[in-house]
Design brief:
With 365 residues, the chain is an alpha+beta fold. The protein has 9 helices and 15 strands. Helix 3 crosses helix 4.
Length: 365
């Protein structure tokens, strides 16, 4: 049996998934991987006559239930084929099971998953990573088009762009809680967006990657954030070998919790290997006994949101420091401007200031 990784490529309308899939196949095939790609099931159903905008509630229900069942069947069948491959294998899904939930009321989704014999938490655990490409409707409107997908309902007008932006946020919320959920920003240069996709998949595969530039700022909140995902984060650093940073993180939102064990090891000045895995509550409690005695636990509240095509994380620290608010965005390169939202006041750029690394903030003094 080969080493199999299952990746979801998702995002709002006109996000670049089709082009990204081609780049993924070319890049990882050249590295010796067998790459399977699972097509977008709703598009197949739409081409076959299903109208997801129908007023017939019974038809809509059966169509969405069938979409989930077909998605699971595709993934399971391709998984069986992947098990027969002798080379390492990637199964890349053009959207995944949780995308379906973004198109209906939560009550209907719970009913459908129960009928199929699964749940949202089980569905998220099917995948090793979820990569969300931000829709061009948010911050890259000049590139938004419907010509590459005749089945797209979000047309190129103000109302269509508004619907596309809202759908983008709904899809992000649907996948919240996956331990390797990454949001890929829009860029003036589309190749940067594609390269970020390749980097994140390489990260899942344990391939050495350039150290990612993160833009960080001390800020003040001078208005309402608005549509965002709020979560509580607890980070504990564990004892590790020199040059290796081990972090145990618990993230909670709406009464649900996910535990992630993350290891970062630099192999050169500009490269590192990063691995992460989800751990059970029992293992989480057990790993806490390995806490680094020289570092305190970090507790903070996070608001995650998209603004003008860029993804932000706004952290308000509670322990061991307070009166500290840090805004972070990933994938914004040095020569690119950050689209600061109007409800944020920037106090200081701390991008390269090691004093504000979480690992150092946790140091006992």
């Amino acid at each position: 049996m080969s080493n199999i990784k299952r990746i979801v490529l998702t995002g709002g309308p006109c996000a670049g998934k089709t082009t990204a899939l081609v780049r993924i196949i070319e890049y990882f095939s050249s590295l010796g991987y067998k790459v399977f790609t699972i097509p977008e099931v709703p598009t197949i159903f739409s081409q076959a006559g299903m109208n997801y905008l129908t007023d017939n509630k019974k038809l809509f229900y059966e169509g969405e239930k069938a979409t989930l069942e077909m998605q699971l069947a595709f993934e399971d069948k391709f998984g069986k084929m992947a098990e027969q491959c002798t080379e390492p294998t990637l199964v890349v899904c053009d959207r995944g099971t949780m995308d379906i939930s973004a198109y209906m009321a939560p009550e209907m989704w719970e009913e459908i998953t129960a009928k199929v014999g699964t749940s949202s938490s089980e569905l998220r655990q099917r995948y090793d990573a979820v990569l969300h490409l931000v829709s061009a409707a948010d911050g890259a409107e000049q590139y938004y088009t419907t010509t590459n997908n005749a089945q797209r309902y979000e047309q190129m007008n103000e109302e269509g762009l508004r619907i596309a932006r809202e759908l983008d946020k709904k899809v992000i919320k649907a996948w919240t809680g996956h331990p390797h959920h990454r949001v890929i920003n829009n860029h003036d240069d589309f190749d940067r967006k594609l390269n970020r996709v390749l980097k994140e998949i390489s990260n899942v595969l344990g391939l050495p990657q350039p150290i990612e530039e993160e833009r960080k700022y001390i800020v003040q909140l001078i208005g309402e954030v608005g549509d965002c995902i709020e979560s509580e984060i607890t980070q504990t650093y564990l004892i590790g070998e020199p040059g290796c940073e081990i972090r145990l993180r618990r993230r909670g939102w709406q009464g649900k919790y996910v535990n992630v064990h993350n290891t970062k090891k630099r192999i050169s000045e500009h490269e590192m290997i990063e691995t992460e895995r989800q751990v059970s509550n029992n293992l989480y409690q057990s790993l806490l006994t390995q806490a680094d005695p020289d570092r305190q636990t970090i507790r903070k509240l996070r608001k995650s949101f998209i603004w003008k095509g860029q993804y932000f994380e706004l952290d308000t620290y509670l322990e061991p420091v307070n009166n500290l608010m840090i805004l972070e965005t990933k994938g914004v390169v040095s020569q690119e401007d950050v689209n600061f939202p109007p409800f944020i006041k920037v106090i200081e750029d701390i991008t390269d200031n090691k004093q504000y690394y979480n690992y150092n903030l946790a140091m006992r003094r």
